């Protein structure tokens, strides 16, 4: 449950691209990886960027849903990992990518499916941090991250509270 999120952390496309590329730099040398498994939906964007940078051509997905907007519910697996990827996991050369780890519930569920994979996220909150092998930026547990695909350009009133 993330209703306690007090702070907003909006991320632009530019920043997300930069942070995802930074993740690719960090992952280079930890491989080689034969396949990337993106945790849909949020993991699909960074997975594509990482796969491009590391020249990984096999990109798969697993679909896990646990949030309805900011409310966390039961973990539901909507699309399981393919048998080919389960087979590849034995080699330890599978890379799982997600946009963030929060409570760690999603990461825990996917790690059970692919126990030998390297788990990477762009952002991490303290509760889930230890469940990922690599991440770029940590934010506090009471921060809600807004991804660029959740945002639009909008009017903001002046800090002084007056009209502009
Ligand atoms: O560590 P947790 O507390 O499990 O939260 C992290 C997960 O929550 C979000 O996905 P969400 O279930 O909202 O679906 P989405 O990727 O389709 O937005 C996010 O993309 C992570 O996958
Ligand atoms: N967009 C978004 N989804 C989440 N799912 C769990 N935590 C978060 C968060 O901080 N931002
Ligand atoms: Mg997700």
From TrEMBL:
Subunit structure: Homotetramer.
Origin species: Devosia enhydra
Matches recorded under InterPro entries: PRTase-like, PRTase_dom, Xanthine_Guanine_PRibTrfase
Ranges where the Phosphoribosyltransferase domain occurs: 13-154
EC number: 2.4.2.22
Any one of the GO CC terms: plasma membrane
Positions bound to GMP: 102-106, 144-145
Reaction(s) this enzyme catalyzes, per UniProt: XMP + diphosphate = xanthine + 5-phospho-alpha-D-ribose 1-diphosphate; GMP + diphosphate = guanine + 5-phospho-alpha-D-ribose 1-diphosphate; IMP + diphosphate = hypoxanthine + 5-phospho-alpha-D-ribose 1-diphosphate
Mode of membrane association: Peripheral membrane protein
TM segment ranges: none
Coiled-coil segments: none
GO biological process: GMP salvage; purine ribonucleoside salvage; XMP salvage
Pfam families: Pribosyltran
Chain's role: Purine salvage pathway enzyme that catalyzes the transfer of the ribosyl-5-phosphate group from 5-phospho-alpha-D-ribose 1-diphosphate (PRPP) to the N9 position of the 6-oxopurines guanine and xanthine to form the corresponding ribonucleotides GMP (guanosine 5'-monophosphate) and XMP (xanthosine 5'-monophosphate), with the release of PPi. To a lesser extent, also acts on hypoxanthine.
Subcellular location: Cell membrane
Main location: membrane
GO MF annotation list: guanine phosphoribosyltransferase activity; hypoxanthine phosphoribosyltransferase activity; magnesium ion binding; xanthine phosphoribosyltransferase activity
Similarity comment: Belongs to the purine/pyrimidine phosphoribosyltransferase family. XGPT subfamily.
Binding positions for guanine per the UniProt entry: 102, 145
Biological pathway: Purine metabolism; GMP biosynthesis via salvage pathway; GMP from guanine: step 1/1; Purine metabolism; XMP biosynthesis via salvage pathway; XMP from xanthine: step 1/1
Cofactor: Mg(2+)
Protein name (record): Xanthine-guanine phosphoribosyltransferase
HAMAP family: XGPRT (MF_01903)
Binding site for 5-phospho-alpha-D-ribose 1-diphosphate: 41-42, 98-106
Keyword set, alphabetical order: Cell membrane, Glycosyltransferase, Magnesium, Membrane, Metal-binding, Purine salvage, Transferase
Binding site for xanthine: 102, 145
Binding site residues for Mg(2+): 99
